[in-house]
Amino acid sequence: MTEALTLGPWADVVDRFCLHLAAERGRSPHTVRAYRADVTDLLIWWMPSGAENLAELSLTDLRAWLMAAQRRGVARRTLARHAASARAFTRWAHERGLTNHDVGLRLASPRTGRHLPAVLSEDEAQALLAITAQAAESGDPVARRDHAMIEVLYAAALRVSELVSLDRTDVDHDRRTLRVVGKGNRERIVPYGVPAAMAVADWLGQGRAELVTKDSGAALFLGARGRRVDPRSVRAVVAAAGRAANCGHLTPHSLRHTAATHVLNGGADLRAVQEFLGHESLASTQIYTHVSVDRLRAAFAQAHPRA
Predict the structure, then answer these.
(1) Is 228 helix (H, G, I), strand (E, B) or coil?
(2) Global pTM?
């Protein structure tokens, strides 16, 4: 209500844009909330200009808005998201006939740099999984679940959102594959190995039944109260396992990055890794290659005639 009063006539436009993001573009609730906040900030900043329709919004206005945010000390990563939100909004407005042309088409994003999580060595990954496997041997259903979740995160290089969204029917035990729905509702089939298969079978056969309730539904992994496990719980489980294994600060994305790096180090083709990770663009996958420079240097030394 407060936002609608602040935005005045633009509130309905923002609501329609957000509906488009969720229903047509398949964006996650988190992304929709972030884009709503960004576009709301843009329009509130622009409203004092006295403009009466979106056709009056210009590229200069967008750049000035980003500059004003930068002067307020907004982080570069947030500024980059502001720019992405504005481009998505102006594209949608043009497609709906609210503007004569897409004024955000030439809006550049501030360079943010890539801050990749630390990568575990293969020995560290094995030690981490050995510790969670040992805990699972206690028979505690939560320990069985934790071991299975960490095995799957590492084996299939999943995002935490993808892990918590898995249903039992997404697991093909015979082929050892998972049906994963990733960003933008893009579906992919991801293979996983024998250790992960054994951990999942142990969880389903011995652990899940002890946590299941009428609210469990088809969820593969359950929280302590029987509902679908929460992403925050997964992060806490991974962090605790990382501390126990002396791996430092460990996150689900660290395991995803580690898995991608180990697959590349094993000689996998970059395109195959792109499919494995569910990246829409190969450029997103290429950020993982810098950690494999030693392997590239060794291959160069062995194969290039002037190495």
Answers:
(1) strand
(2) 0.65
91 is catalytic: no
Asked if residue 2 lies in contact with residue 31, where contact means CB atoms within 8 angstroms, the answer is: no
The reported pLDDT for the residue numbered 290 is 55
Q: Which of 63, 179, 183, 227 is catalytic?
A: 183
pLDDT in tens, 210-233: 999 999 999 999 998 999 999 999
For CA atoms 54, 59, 61, 67, the dihedral sign is positive
Q: What is the mean pLDDT of the chain?
A: 86
Tell me if residue 183 is catalytic.
yes
The single residue of 208, 256, 257, 262 carrying the catalytic annotation is 256
Give dist(CA 123, CA 282) in Å, integer: 28
Better-predicted residue by pLDDT, 270 or 251 = 251
Give me the percent of the chain exceeding a pLDDT of 90: 57
What CA–CA distance (Å, rounded) separates 202 from 193? 14
- Which among 159, 208, 257, 262 is annotated as catalytic? 159
Whether 214 is a known active-site residue: answer no
256 has catalytic annotation:
yes
Residue 84: what are its φ and ψ, rounded to 5°? -65, -40
304 flagged as catalytic? no
* List of domains in the chain: 2-95 (1.10.150), 122-298 (1.10.443.10)
- Verify whether residue 27 is a known catalytic residue: no
DSSP one-letter code for 190: E
User: Which sign does the torsion angle of CA 189, 191, 196, 202 carry?
Assistant: positive
If residue 166 lies in a helix (H) or strand (E), which one and from where to where? none
Looking at the DSSP bridge assignments, the partners of residue 222 are 228
State the first-to-last Cα distance of the chain, in angstroms, to the nearest integer. Answer: 67
